Amino acid sequence: MDEDFAGFSKLIIAPVFPKGLDWVSATHKTPFGLISVKWKRVLRAIELHVDIPDGLIAKLGVKGYERQLEAGKHKILIK
User: Fold this and answer.
1) CATH number for the domain harbouring residue 72
2) In a domain, 41, yes or no
3) CA distances from 32 to 2, 11, 27 (A)
4) Which residues are paired to 29 by β-bridges?
5) What is the pLDDT of residue 23?
6) Is residue 49 domain-resident?
7) Based on the structure, what is the number of domains in the chain?
8) CA 54: distance to chain centroid?
9) H/E run at residue 70
10) Under a CB-based contact definition with an 8 Å cutoff, are residues 77 and 46 in contact?
């Protein structure tokens, strides 16, 4: 969660993809609802799924790729 935003309404998602690990799935319960982040290797890319509950905004930072995500379900392919 980003402490600079009222009520911790913005979170930071910065997954890493270490060699030897083919997938990860994690959840975190917040007062806004459940945050879910999952990724898996698909050929030479990473398929990332992020679920953000209503009332939150996420800053996604991955391998030089940065993007703001609104509440909802997101599927991102990182090559």
Assistant:
1) 2.60.420.10
2) yes
3) 14, 12, 13
4) 34
5) 97
6) yes
7) 1
8) 14
9) none
10) yes
- pLDDT per position as a tens digit, 49-69: 999 999 999 999 987 788 999
* pLDDT of the residue at 1: 45
Among 72, 57, 55, 69, CA closest to 2: 57
Query: In terms of pLDDT, which residue wins out, 37 or 1?
Result: 37
Q: Which two tokens stand for residue 37?
A: 């982040």
Tell how strand 72-78 and strand 65-69 pair up. Answer: unpaired
Alpha-carbon span 63 to 76, nearest angstrom: 13
35 DSSP β-pair partners:
28
**Is 56 within 8 Å of 8 (Cβ atoms)?**
no
Domain annotation covers residue 61: yes
**Is residue 69 in a domain?**
yes
Which residues form the domain of 32? Answer: 6-78
Report whether pLDDT(6) > 70.
no
Average pLDDT of the chain is 89
Reference 12, options 54, 58, 56; nearest CA is 58
